[in-house]
Amino acid sequence: MADCTDYLALLSSDNKEIVRESAFKAGEDNCVEAVPKLAELLKTNHLGIQEAVDSSLRKIGGRETVEAVIPLLRSDEAPVRNLAMDILREVGNQDMPSLIELTQDEDPDIRIFVSDILGSTGNMLAVQPLCEALLKDPEVNVRYQAAVSLGELGLEEATPCLNKAINDEEWVQYSVIEALTKIGHASSVNALVKALDGASDLVASMIIDSLGEMGNVKAVTMLLKRMPDAPTALRNKIVKAVVKIIGGKSLTLLSDEERERFRQYLLVALQDEDEEIQDAAIQGLAYVGGEEASRGILRIAAALDPDRDQDRLALIIGFLSQIGLTEALKGGLLGEDQEQARVAVQVLAQIAPDECTLEDCVCQVLMEAFWKAALPVQRQIVGVVASKSDEQSKDFFIRVLNEHEDGTVLKSAVYLLGEKLRLAEVVDRIFPLLDHQYDDVKEAALEACIAIGGDGVQARFQEMFTSEEPVHRLMATYALGKLGPMENLEILRQAVEDVVPDIRKVAVEALAASGGDDSVWRPLVLHRLSDESKDVRLTVIEIMGHHYDQEMVPHLLDALDDEDDWVKIRAMDALGEHSTAEAAPRMVEMLGNTNRFVVMKAIEALGNIGGSAAFAALLEVTNSDEYELVSAAEEAISKIQEM
């Protein structure tokens, strides 16, 4: 095995591959004596060697590495300089004096490089030399980099010198402001606000953003005082910063005069092209706004894409609802702009209480607007009111039921009158909707009739079952199963023999859910295990799994011979889930099935059943060449071992 002395010799080899390998090994063995040679090899125009050297120098580190790599900062080759800087960013903190000494170098480029490196050291010792560079270095780029690095260090000890540098050249100001923002020390607030006086528009904008990010309440009063004299663009930035610092609700705590003045500024900011400024203005106006605010915010919300701007739109709707019911919302509801109307309904839905009454003005506004609105808005309105209304709104919905023809609108009316209020008086109007052209309206009408219930409704469905129309018999079977399966047992007996598979399926489900005497419904359900329809047989198997007992076992075992693999699989699931021991031999047989999924299910079932036969069969599966089967078998074996 080679030692460090050997590596030193090998690093001078003419064979590039040997040099590369030796460079890696020198790092792994922490060969400090190889550091000078490794640093020299960074200049080699060979990517593999450079990568190996880079890795090893980082591993070895220490003062020796720092001292060996520093001279490479003066290289004429940019790639070499960049490699040296990357290494020093990682290991430079292991020899701070050598780096700090370079801050006084005559070459401004070296001072820039070392200022950059010091920012990555995470060392308190870097603060003082960087501050010296920031305040005294004649080269602007050195001062800029010093400020950047102080921000990267993020140490509050750098705050005093950064505060002093706030009035430097504009290029340096950018990095100083960013650094102060990252550190976020309270003492910077005064310095930043004072710097606004002589700052360019761009710097002033950055300062205001910084104050907003820092979130120090101390800045609010100073910013408010500057608003009257600030140009519009800058004032809008101040609006954003103030709202960000204290939030919208706190604006209500301002004096009446200050609040009204700030409200006017918010309204102006609402017109800004910057979305962040708009959103800050909207947040503020939610608490101090009014008609004008509601109108302006509604216009912005209506222009958003409901899909692309979903999150922003939801926030704006929430803020609009905070303002409350306004004439602007009423106007938007009935205006020609359908997008504004759409948003207005969403806002009113949030303003409305959970339970609408005749006395509630928001629900009244929605119901009064319904007959004047366009169809898309009508659909929204009726959905909102139906979800919140009680019996006091029934007249409105009965009128809708009698006069409207749109399926979506009718569904909402049917839901409220039937499912929610269960009004027997509307049965005559809802029952005909069972023949509506749209299935979703039929389904709504069916559920409504079931919810209303009663002897009259039941008699109607009993008569409907005699229809020659399959869909009528299907709905009647479903309804009578819900209304009283035992009372309608004779009809359900007929339904399980119907020529239509879906009717047989629904009848089987109704009988199993009846809660009646098992001896009555079980024979009817189990008889359908030989049904010609796979879907009916699957339903029977699922019922057997839910009502599992020893009586079900022979039938489930018989289902393993079904011609349809899905029926087999559901039977296997039921037997395995209930750890049916007598099913183990059949599951072992299933391991030879040609359907991979059936085999996987057999493995799973054997793991649930357990026992010596299952264990032996699963061990045999682990000899398979198929990874998926082996993995499943191993998991099943683990389950058996835990039993």
What would you note in describing this structure?
It holds the Pfam family HEAT_2. It comes from Pseudodesulfovibrio indicus. This is HEAT repeat protein. One of its GO terms (molecular function) is oxidoreductase activity. This protein is an all-alpha fold. It has helices spanning 4-10, 16-28, 35-41, 47-60, 62-69, 78-91, 96-102, 108-118, 127-136, 140-153, 159-164, 170-183, 188-195, 201-214, 218-226, 232-246, 256-269, 275-288, 291-302, 310-323, 327-334, 338-351, 361-370, 375-388, 394-403, 407-420, 427-430, 439-452, 455-464, 470-483, 489-495, 501-512, 518-527, 534-546, 553-559, 565-577, 584-590, 596-609, 612-621, 627-641. The chain is flat, with a radius of gyration of 39 Å. Among the domains are: 355-440, no CATH class; 453-547, Leucine-rich Repeat Variant, CATH 1.25.10.10; 549-643, Leucine-rich Repeat Variant (Alpha Horseshoe), CATH 1.25.10. Helix 8 packs parallel to helix 10 and helix 10 (140-153) packs parallel to helix 12. Helix content is 69%, strand content 0%. The mean pLDDT is 90.
- Span of the ends, CA to CA: 52 Å
Shape: flat
Structural class based on helices, strands and sheet pairing: mainly alpha
Identify the CATH homologous superfamily of the domain at 453-547: Leucine-rich Repeat Variant
Assign the CATH architecture of the domain at 453-547: Alpha Horseshoe
Q: How large, in whole angstroms, is the Cα Rg? A: 39 Å
Strand content: under 5%
Biggest sheet architecture: none
Q: Which range best describes the helical content: under 10%, 10-25%, 25-40%, 40-55%, 55-70% or over 70%?
A: 55-70%
CATH class of the domain at 453-547: Mainly Alpha
CATH fold type of the domain at 453-547: Leucine-rich Repeat Variant
